[in-house]
Write a structure and sequence with these properties.
Layout (H helix, E strand, L loop, with lengths): L6 E5 L3 H12 L3 E5 L5 H15 L14 E3 L3 H5 L4 E4 L5 H14 L5 E4 L6 H5 L8 E5 L9 E5 L6 H13 L3 E4 L9 H17 L5 H19 L2 H7 L4 H9 L18 H15 L4 H21 L3 H13 L13 E6 L13 H19 L3 H5 L2 E12 L8 E10 L4 E10 L2 E14 L4 E2 L4 H14 L17
Parallel strand pairs: 1-2, 1-4, 2-3, 4-5, 5-6, 7-8
Antiparallel strand pairs: 6-7, 9-11, 10-13, 11-12, 12-13, 13-14
Bound molecules: nicotinamide-adenine-dinucleotide.
Length: 487
Amino acid sequence: MTSRKGTAAILGAGVIGAGWAARFALMGWDVRIFDPAAAAPQIVEDAFARARASLPALYDVALPDMGTVSFHDTIAGAVSGAVWIQESAPERLDLKQSLYQQVQEHAALTAILASSTSGFTPSELQAGATRPEQIIVAHPFNPVYLLPLAELVGSDKTDPALLDRAADMLTGIGMSPLKVRGEIPAHIADRFLEAVWREALWLIKDGVATTAEIDDAIRMGFGLRWAQMGLFETYRIAGGNGGMAHFLHQFGPALQWPWTKLMDVPDLDDALVDMIASQSDAQSGARSIAQLEAARDGNLVAIMRGLKARGAGAGAVLSDHEATIAPPAPNPDLPTPPRTMFRQVPGTWVDYNGHMNESHYLTAFSEATDRILLWAGMDAACVDQGHSVFTVETHIRHIDEVNIGDTISVTTRVLQGGGKKLHLWHELRVGERLCATGEQLLLHVDLASRRSAAPRADVGAWFTRAQAAHAALPDPDGLGRHVGQRT
Ligand SMILES: NC(=O)c1ccc[n+]([C@@H]2O[C@H](COP(=O)([O-])OP(=O)(O)OC[C@H]3O[C@@H](n4cnc5c(N)ncnc54)[C@H](O)[C@@H]3O)[C@@H](O)[C@H]2O)c1
């Protein structure tokens, strides 16, 4: 059975291909993989384990149901029915070109054939192809399942409409496509990385810094600036109130000084390779690659969630994507309380006991309340008109443990609604297991006077209907309890 999202073929499932496979599948696409290496299934399994532990933790709603994943012995089998074909084979032009010839014998004419190539231009990839206009570059960043950027590049043979379609598809799996205006080797981002890389190699060769010191110089300073504002916005601030023009006038002349060795390439002879490798061993050799990957993914989730709360950088991409996959409003007349939250517990919600920290039960119930208010009509425009709610009382009962990686769901019953008071009863479960309840009393308020007030008519009507629909249910166990009371 195929999922409604579509089918993606992954050709080459190493570091990058496996990351693409995980992102597509976790976003609900069916994934068909071709890779001749015997090790490929294990690489894919490991990537999926890392992706499952991190990607859902970026979102405050559940991701779509995972698509199917299958391995195929032939290219024909893998590309059958695929609307997106992502090639992530080794960086060799002849290999990629001959792969495309085989792919185009079997692929749908409308399928997008995208290459992960770090360096080749679309024109180079398209040379000798049956349908060159079908081939584009979609260059991602490792780990593909977490980092949103994909550089999209076409050639003069590429229909702009195909690039638009490609951008829409990538946006649909939570990515941030960046259309590159022209074809250049290594696109945009790897140009920067090469400049930094060359400079770093010189600093080591000249004995100025070690691998660990260079990494500190990045992660303690400009790396943090770049992650949230990039290069130009950061330098604009550095120009003070004079802004960008002042900055350029002040620091421009320094570019003429011999600060960098950017135009020279250090000879990567055995001595330099040994020096860098032994410094890197001293810096990071105590941790396995798997441990480093887990640390990287956890850190990326924490940083990106921080940016999400502030609507900045990659965090803004997450919020926009989340809005497109959030569940639609249910019918308030249904007799069962609606599911107001469904998500995986992120690592940042877990405390020293290894289970969900108490503060995040309130986070979960608060988000559930916000969701039902949104469904009732209390959206940003409604709040702008001055209609909101203040919480006046919350009582949480902790009934069973919630652990890292558990998927929690919250259902919300409307005990009283329609007038000034909104009385809600939340139940938080892992599967069928009841883990916590949250009883909340909120007051609708007029934000101008900061006093209680009737809700906007449509919001009140929604809650009146929901209260009536839930009224026939028996009183929930624990309703009205206070601290220290015995059941
Ligand atoms: N590693 C990175 O950080 C990175 C980042 C962005 C883009 N890329 C690009 O992604 C591509 C893949 O790089 P990688 O790092 O994943 O390499 P990799 O060596 O980890 O994986 C390549 C995979 O391709 C498979 N393969 C070999 N011949 C094949 C064929 N004929 N058909 C299908 N699969 C075949 C190999 O078995 C291997 O599993 C390259 O073009 C690279 O430039 C890499």
